[in-house]
Structures are given as structure tokens and as C-alpha cells.
Fold these 4 entries.
Entry 1:
Amino acid sequence: MNAKNQALSVLYRNMCGGWCRQGKGFDKILKELLSIRHIFCSQNMSAASERLSFGAVKTGADCAKKKRAGQCNLHIYTSGDWVHPAMSSKAKSTRVDNAYDRLKSEILRGDLPPGFQAPEPDIANRLGMSRTPVREALIRLEADGLVNLVPRRGAKVLPISRRDICEIYQILSALEALAGRLAAAEKGGGNTFDGVRELLNRSDEALKGGDIEAWAVLDDRFHRWVAGVSGNTRLDTEIAGFLDQVYRANNVLLRLNKAPASNAGDHLRLVDAIEAGDEDAAAEIARGHRLTGLARMKDLLDSCGLSQV
């Protein structure tokens, strides 16, 4: 049974119970169920929510009584977000997101360095949280390629290998070229360019002052800006995942080198091309910028004798 049919089955059982208690006859119940199925399959969520709300109020209240008596393990709510079980509460999601954001930030900054390993209870204690949201956050971080979950040993922070860096930069050279082209086609999507030019000025000041860590933060923000003004949400999301790994590598290698991995002047040229609507130039600058950065990263790894960071 697929997910849609499973959901319908749950809805049918719950709605029938509510409607029967309201005294609705079989014909009326059948008509309601067919109507719900039609709305559900057409993805008209607001209409479905409105249709379900009358029967669900009674069902929800009745189920709550049973739940207090230990007889009900499913409580259906209806809202603009369609129908969801009580366990998918906003509060729980917030705790998971909080744990995920804090752990991810510590990994990207290097506070939890590659090779760091700790059992789940220790990580939960570190965050001052219960184990459930921490466990779910670790599962998400594993999907991001930042940690490896080891049975009975907890989570281990993964390093970034030379091969990882090569593959990431190669992929970004293509994705960011596309982002630059799309951004130029829309001339930045109606965004003003004062903010990004100010960001580049701050980046230059950080380099002049030898603050490579501040430069790495500003460099990351610039590349996320390019992805954002492309206007392609899925492209933006894909690029963001790779930029997380670039930021990690920068935090290690650029501290050793005390210089950017690529020509910072490319950033200004890229902004100019996007603002002018020059699609070919924007794509080529973005592509060349990443490939130059890749060559520099390889040199840094070789000079430092590192196979991973």
C-alpha cells in the first residue's frame, strides 16, 4: 500500500468513527469519503482541510478521551498543513532544528574537528538537551555527509578528503556557472547591489588586515548570495550543501596559507556581469573562479602533506 492510500485508510477510519457518532447514515458517509478522496488526489489541501474539519473535531475530542484511558495511540488533527499525527509537533521540530543547527555550526567552525567521536548521551549532555531531538539531528547530519553514526559508539565527525574537495569544486564550477548565468538573465532578480558590494568591501578589508577567518565567512556569504539571486530554489539548495563543505576546508587550509584560495577580484567582476545582464561572462567568471580555487586547494594539500582536512 503506497503512502497516499495509507493516509486515506487512516482518514477513513477516523472520519467514519466521528460521523457514525454524529448519527450520519451509510449513504452520507460514503458520499463524504468519496468527496475527500477526490479532493485528496487532486492535492486541493485547503478544500480537504475544510471538508475534514467538521468530522475531525468530534473524532479528535473522542480520541483524546480514549488516549487518557490508554486506548488510543493515534490523534488526527486538521489544519492548513493537511492532516498530521500529534508526534509531528512544531515544538519537537524546533528542538530537532536547534540541535541540528548547533552541531552543524560547531562542525563547520572546527569546534568539533574531524575524527571527534562521542556517544549520543554525551552529545545530548553537551547541548543540554534530551536524546530524542539529538538523535534525529545526528541522522540529518549523517545525510549531509558531516558525521558517521557508529552503532553503540555514537557519532564520528567525518574529514574531507582530497578527493572530496576535488569533486566538490568540480561540481560547484558547473552549478555556480549556471547560477551566475540565471542571475545575469534576471539582472539579479530586481535586487539592489549595494549590499553585496558592501560585503565585498568588508572582504577586502579582512584580507588587508590578515583576518583570514573573517574573509572565509564573507566569502561563504558571497557565494550564497550568487546562488540566491539565481532565482532557482533547488539550485540554491544544492549549492548550499556543497558550500558547507568548502567552508570547512577553508577553515583549515586557509589558516595555514593565510591567503584566499582564489582571486578575490573575481567576485567584483561577477557582480558587475550579473548587474549588466551579461550571461556568458557571469557563467565563465563563476566557473573559472572555482577551477582556480581547486588548483590552489590541491597545491595547499600537497605543500602541507595532507590527504584530508
Entry 2:
Amino acid sequence: MPTDITPFLRPAVPKTDSDLEKDLEISKDLVDKMVPSYLKDLYRDPFNQSLTLSDEELDDIREACLSDSTRIINYLDSVLKEKQDLMDRQVKSLEHIAEQAYAQATSAEALCKTVNTIAVNAGNQARNSSQIAESAKRQADVAVALSKKCDFKGWISVGIAALCALMEFAVHHNEIIEFVKNILAK
């Protein structure tokens, strides 16, 4: 690839006064086309005359100098401020909703802990009740076994009492018969 660019360079030609006059005429034509009519006098000869403009004319000049982009920016600025205000209200609303959700979550967490504590206590009571029921069953089994032993002893005592009564009747049967006759005779 050639690195020598000298064949492509042309010698610089200095500008002359006639070139400057042409540029000035082009500038004047451009000013005539682009600048509003009340500003044209400012760009024509003589420039040394003093101009006095009223405040209203100065405001008009300032307004005319504003570009379309500046006008769009000014318009959009007010529209965007309204949108920003709306967004700020929405953010505040969302923050309020988030605070309420956090408060409800905290409340739900506390409620969950309370319910968990109640469930643990209920479990403990159920285990205690189960132990009490097992103890009562053992006591009932012991009572049944004891009652069976007592029942057997009771029948033995009834048998002994009946035997004693028969022996008493056998030994004293004459006296008993006499006593019953006396009771019946009266």
C-alpha cells in the first residue's frame, strides 16, 4: 500500500479580496432568507448606527432567536414535569403499599410464631395426656388384678362364715329351735 500522498495534495491558493466579497454576498443572501424582516436592518449597512429597542421588541428578538429544539424542550419540560409529578405520586403510593405490606408481613410473622408456640404447647399437652392415659390404664389393670384377688378372698371369707354358721347351728341346734318357737309363739 503506498504511503506517499504527495501526488494528491494541491498547493493552497490564498484568498483574495474578491473571494471575501463573494462570501459576504452569500452571507447577506442567507441572512435575508433566514432572519425575520424586523431583524434585517441589523445586518445591513451602516452597522455603526445606534439602535434603541423597546422591551417588547427585545422579547420578540429573544423569542425569534429560540430554535425549534428549544421550543420543543420547553414544551416537553412542562409535559415531563406533569409526568414526573404523576410518577412521584405513584412512587409514594407504591411506598405506602409496600409499608402496609411490610406491616402485614410483620404481623403475620408474629401471628405465625404465636400459632407455632400454641402448637408446641398443644403437642406437649397431648404427650402429657397420653402419659396420663397410660398411667391410668396401668392403674386400672392393677385395680382389676387386685379386685380379682380380693374377690377370691371374699368368697373364701363367705365360705368360712357359712361354715361357721352351720357349725353353730349343728352345735346349738336345740337352743336355736327353742328360740325360733318362742318368737313365733308370741
Entry 3:
Amino acid sequence: MYQAYENIFQKFKLCVIALLERNKTNLESMDSEVKLSTTNNECACSINISFRKIIEVGLKSVLKNVATIIGSSLTNKEIFANYETNYIFMLGDPFHLSYGSSIHTVYTQVLQKEINDSIYLKEKDTQAFALIESVYMLLDPLTRIKPYLYEKFSKGTLCQVSSETYALRLPARSKKYNSFSHINRSGDVKNTLPSDSSYFIFIQRGEPFPLTDINIKVNTNHGRYEDNEIIKVKDSGESKLKKYTVLDKNSQGSMYMIFSRDGHQPNPIVAIGCKFVNYNYSLELSVRVIGYDIDYNEKILEIL
């Protein structure tokens, strides 16, 4: 019985190879058939195999299973935790089909459809791309020909860049504002913001988020330090705003307040921290008053 199976299996492989070769350059003969006959002591039968059946019964079922596994991974928090996957790039060919052949094109099209259906069933907005070219083909520098992705790669430091500009000012009593100075870790003054209600830009659009806290020294000339007014600057299409510079007091944008109850000492030093939260695309800001080597206060604000 096993020998009969081996014989049929070998004949079946030869039929599939013959059909693949026949449809290598075009798909006009998709419905042409190859007859597979088997004769032994227990059975004498034959079946007709077409290129279309190979795709519909064989190729599609395998790719559907692959796409189902990939789609399921999008909802598996053990893999991606709370991160949202925006894009999937599928490269390579497990069947080792001839690149540029008709069957390879069909393989790519079927894979694209199956992965799209799988993502749709998972109710995700992820975009999937089944690429015809392999990684090697995309990156291999060919003579006088620029590959698709090679020129897109560059060396550098990977960092998180802000998509918005944020600025700060410190309200005091009687609609006045406390002035403050931006200082480094050694306490040296880098620049000073006057008490004319102008804003101080501490996060700049298109620039990396600060890796360390931003220290400021508050001049409590108009009353005790309590409030931190932060504005997400509305893009006005004007010239690029620069980090650690003064922004006009009449600037427009979404406003947020962080309250500090422990800024009672005169001229406190305040540390402003910011952290981008990847899994929900929010910016986490913290303000803490520093004095006598103790952090007196910490406030968190999430801007979605």
C-alpha cells in the first residue's frame, strides 16, 4: 500500500511540475489538464489536474493558513503588547517560484488578497504589502541601476521625533507671569524668559524628544510658583520655530495646565520631563520642584 502511495505521489509531482512549466510565461492554459493515471492490483483510476486546480486547491489553502497566522498575531499581546501595528511587509517566497514568472505573480496576488481578508476579519487598520521583490533584490546595488529601497537607507541614530511644538509659561497672580531661566545641569544660565507672558519652546516639531529633564530656575517676582501653562502650538505655516527660544504670547493652540502645590520656596528650580508613550501615541509630561536634594512634587499630564 505504501509503495502504491509513493508511486502515485511521484507521478503527481511530475504532473504539477509539468503544469508549472507550461504556465511559466503566460496563464492562457490555466484550464489545460494533465491526466494522472494509476494502475495497481487494487485500483485502476485516473484524475485530471489543471493549473487552476493547483492554485485554487493547493496554493490558496496554504497562503490562507499563512495569512491567518499573521493576522492572528496582530491581536496577540504577547507579541506586540499594547503596540499597534500599522504596516506589514511580506517578502520572500517559500515555494521558490521563478521570479518574474506568471505563477510567481499569481502567488503574490493571492497572498495579498488573503492577508487583506485576514486583517479585515481581525477588525484592524493595518496595511499589508506583499512585495514581489525579495530583500536581496531590493538592497543589492546593481550596476548603473538603483534598487528600490537601497537609497532609502541611511546610517544614523534612531530616535523619537515630535510631531508638534510645545511651549511653556508660568502664570502668577493678577494675570501676570513669572520669568524664568533655562539652566544646564551645572546651574549655568542658557537663556532667560522675560515676565511678559511670552512662551518658552521646550519641544520642537521635527526634533528629537529630550532624553533628559529640562531644568528651569523660576524668578518668583510676581508671586509663588504654582502653575505651568503648556501650549501645543498651532501650525501657522510660518517659519520654523526653534527650540529653547521665545514664542509670542498671543500664539494659538491647545492649552494644558499642570499644577504644583509645593513650589512655596522662593526662586525654585523646576525639572520638566517628557516621554513619548508608544503604545497609545501620547506625550507624557512631568513637572517636579527640586530643593534640598528632594523632589517635592510630580505631576503627570497625558496629551493624546
Entry 4:
Amino acid sequence: MLDVDGGWTEYATTLAEGAVFCDSGGAFDDERVGFRCLLDALSLPGVAGAVALNPLHLSPRPQVVTSLVLHIRRTGCALRVRDGGLPDEAARLCAGQPELRP
């Protein structure tokens, strides 16, 4: 597990461990190979959801965050953002989703 910002490893161990998906550029969802791989993984049977430390781990642009959250939620999986702070529209997409538990 990567210790991205001094808190990821500790936080990830409180949840069932899985995989870490990283992108190395591209502000648009169709340019993000890591994100496409995440969506593929979320489509597998038995997968409950994804975790991000904060919305900036998705994108610095609120409209892109909302688009990415929509893609995640369309898989039927939950998205948990540890530090909160999702744009309002993205937060509404996550309302009522199942709770991710360790």
C-alpha cells in the first residue's frame, strides 16, 4: 500500500484492502487510464466501493469531480471521501449510498 500523504496507509487498513489506482495526468475522465481501471474493478462481483482521501485526489476541477463520481456511482458501488468536501452535485450523487465498513 502506498503512503501517499502520510495518512493513506493507516486509513486504508481500517477498510478491507484492495488495490490502489493512480493516474499520471489528464484532467478529463477519458484520458485517465487509472480511473478506467478503477471502474473496471468496481464492476467486478463483490466489490463494495472506492475510497479517496479528498476530492483533489479525483480532480482539482469540481465539474470533473462530479463527472467521475457519477461514473463510480453508475457501477452500483459507493464512494467514500475521507476528508469530505465534495462539490454539492457530487455529494448529492453519493447521498443514500451504502456505508463502507471495515
